[in-house]
Amino acid sequence: MVNWAAVTGISAGLFTVSLWGSLPVLRSLAALPPMLVAAVAMACAAGLSTLMAHLQAPPEAQRQTRDWRYWAGGVGGLVGALYFYFLALGSGDPARITLITYTWPLGFVLICDRLAGRKLRPRTLLGSGVAFAGLAPLILADSQGIATPAGAYAAGLASGASWIAFSVFLRQAGALSARGYHSLFLHAGLVALALHLAFETMPATTTSTDWATAALIGIGPYGLAFMAWGYALRRGPASLLGVLTYLVPVIAAVLLVLLGWSTPSPELFIATVAVAAGALLSQGPWLRQ
Known about the structure:
By secondary structure, the chain is an all-alpha fold.
């Protein structure tokens, strides 16, 4: 019998990684500081979730609990993933930083297994390992040979740890309503704005394209994608979703090729095959069912 709940969760996961894959292209079009982009995007994501809340049926009489898990895993995880990643990029080779950050899916699936009371499953490690090994040449192909200090690697790992915290929060928080996402995006946007005012300098000139692109990021790769990711984490198998996140750099590379900004390469083909093989290895029994 087909597990339709898992199928819809996996579909939501594929939708999420497709939107995340468009983020590098969109980010390159917005000449704004990273945390300012995050603040604008989160504000637009909060507006989108408010609109979706008005389209939903009236909520039941319940209030979302905002305990330390919400602030540490939800708001802190979301902002930390962005802040530490951009902090690392500012002092190291972007390719190496991206590769070290992408160790987070493996940590996520291992933690989910432990929280669910399951033992370490070899096929989970094997599937994630194959996907990561195939992805490495694609990412490192863009290496600029910049010296990367230990602090940059640490910030990349901190970004990955923040992604794990955010994803675990979404998996355990239950079904967040659109109003729940509105609060999450709004609080994350305020923290990102505070970081921008404290550590970044506003460009002397900006264009309407910069602001429109930041808003589009909030609607797609941040707003819709994060809500779809929460749905996927509640419905789909964590180990498969972890492997699917390795598709993000692959999709980004394909978009660059389609736009004529890059050329097809053997590394792209290897990464695509490796991620598909990793998914099959990690979820072989489930797929046979």
